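Hello Y.,

Per our agreement to keep a running log of every chain we model this quarter, I'm adding this entry. I've kept the format consistent with earlier entries: sequence first, then predicted structure.
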Amino acid sequence: MDFQKAVELISKSSSILLTTHTRPDGDACGCIAAMYDVLTALGKNVKYLFLSPPPEWYEFLFTEKPPILGQNVSLQQLTQGRLGEFDLIIIIDTNSYSQLPKFEEYLKQAEKPVLVIDHHVTADGLGDVELVDSTAAAATGIIVLDFIKYANWPLTEKIAQALFVAVATDTGWFQFSNTDARVFRSCADLIDAGADLVQIYHDLYQNYSPARFKLMAAMLNTLKLHFDGRYAAQHLTMQDFEQTGAAYSDTENLIDESRQIGTVEVAALFVELKDGRIRCSLRGRGAVNVCQIAQKFGGGGHKMAAGTYLPGPLQNAKQLIKTEVEKQLQ
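Predicted structure for the entry above:
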């Protein structure tokens, strides 16, 4: 029923705006690229807008550099319709106001129908129609694929490539516990449609900048193990970004480095932001639920992967999370 409602909503729309959460990951970027091609093929006027720059290793998904709210598109320009007059807004890979900084202001006053496509448990109910399936824990890309199949829209090689990126990155190239039979069945369909695994792997994991490697080294130098090695905490300061020349987007997946330590059940990466806040990314395994930790501070995510923002200074933020991790480990 939800798929049918979404098809009807898209059918009666002519101009569509796509967006996703701040700090877009592979799932978000892949789904945006896929839906852009799907909707364009349907004859729709489609624009996408990012709320922060996507990591450079996802740029191959887009034919042109994506516009960024607050950089080359202001909130005022968006509100005044300079990006376009839209009759449908599609939000992908989030259903939370907290992950839509500045855009939430536009959303609340736009009075346009909203379609949400998401797989997270944390939700503010932003959509008039919502394709939300928290059982698709691996990736929103799986929901998008199922939606395309339901609507009987063409699954081109380019769309398959984008959705394979979405699924592969959100499963850590099929290493994480969210990798199930549904994931592999979906990926088999994408491969049949033309997704090139070798090229995708190269573009994603063999295409980093020297600055990112320097940033990773700086992070690893801060690694501290607590509670008999069960909790790994590491951080990055603004000085680290200045010295390495890396961007904030270069932090994606760096948190997973410490999870290679056999004893680690919870990993946290704290990143100092220019506005004084501390961004905290969390990863867990076993019985630990890092989403519960993030939600205590206004964040969210999944049981095994979550995040939130904390007030500075850095040491205060680290202590807040350490206290909650200890409760989980107990």
